[in-house]
Amino acid sequence: MRILHTSDWHLGRTFHRVPLLEAQAAYLDHLVEAVRTHAVDVVVVAGDVYDRAVPSLAAVRLFDDVLHRLADAGVPTVMISGNHDSARRLGVGAGLIARAGIHLRTDPGDCATPVVLSDTQGDVAFYGLPYLEPALVRDTLGAVKAGHEAVLSAAMDRVRADLASRPAGTRAVVLAHAFVAGGEPSDSERDITVGGVAAVPAGVFDGVDYVALGHLHGSQTVTERVRYSGSPLAYSFSEHAHRKTMWLIDLGGEGQLAAERVSCPVPRTLARLRGHLDVLLEDPALERHEESWVEATLTDPARPDEPMARLLERFPHTLSLVFEPERAPEDLLASYAQRLRGRDDHQIAEDFVAHVRGGSGPSEQERTVLRAAFDDVRVVDGLTEVAR
């Protein structure tokens, strides 16, 4: 059976306030085309269909459209809710939609009720484990305690029990939305830590043929049978080095597994640039990034004038500007009192400006502003004292 594994669509999300609906629509076009091109038997979507619990109407229309197209293609789809989705909203009409071959699994209590599909080699049971918030599902699943590993273990115990009751040779695929140990996170996933522990061991999923994971946005292999597809688009600059893909999984009759990555379309490359502003504006090696979405980290000791406007002249798609001035090493052994001894308020203020600028003190104009500010404070203090 040929399975196309995808996840973390985050329909409706923006990238540093840039709308991504067109790019998401292009990805879904690519998904439907890949289903046809690669003769896919089933599509699995491992959670975070939407970016928020109450998605925009435009995001809902996009989702509705791709469901119709997958149904028209005659390819069954199994999907679960993620931690960004509202499980109840996503699951509305699941019974009716299933008649068209779109199987939504959003109720933790149904995790051991599989979607059973068949090929020439026999049955494949697809078990959908929606995102399991420990405090909310502990009692439903009979978990021994409220933690990610505990609730996932309880859910998988139910899966294995159901699988054992099925005909010998039934293959099993699990969809789950979780942080599995060995996975590499990025800045764009929402934290799901409970009690200081977010990651669960991959061994929780032992006993099945393939685990299609969602939540982490980088495509990666935890074990040969446990994989993240990653998000189809980058949602933070920390993903600038990601190759966005889906997994094409061939599951043989005896559980043999072959995996291939199918690349996703890239609306615009990402670039993280770092250095002095003048260098970034003049370095010919950076020409290749002039049409990229750019995050620029400036290391100038003093903040340059109009840095964003100047960057936009060369890199018109600059979206993020960070200041990390180069600083002279400090004497860590000197106490705060020692560093201030013998210095008046004005000198201390100038020292502070030099400190935050990596050693570059205030200009003469800035010194004039500082002197005026201190003079005003002294006048107010003097008037207050007279009033007393």
UniProtKB/TrEMBL annotation:
Organism: Streptomyces clavifer
Oligomeric form and interacting partners: Heterodimer of SbcC and SbcD.
Protein name as it appears in the record: Nuclease SbcCD subunit D
Organism superkingdom: Bacteria
Location of the Nuclease SbcCD subunit D C-terminal domain: 267-355
Role of this protein: SbcCD cleaves DNA hairpin structures. These structures can inhibit DNA replication and are intermediates in certain DNA recombination reactions. The complex acts as a 3'->5' double strand exonuclease that can open hairpins. It also has a 5' single-strand endonuclease activity.
Family under the similarity heading: Belongs to the SbcD family.
Keyword Iron-sulfur appears in the UniProt entry: no
InterPro entries recorded: Calcineurin-like_PHP, DNA_Repair-Maintenance_Comp, Metallo-depent_PP-like, Mre11_N, SbcD, SbcD_C
Keywords: DNA recombination, DNA replication, Endonuclease, Exonuclease, Hydrolase, Nuclease
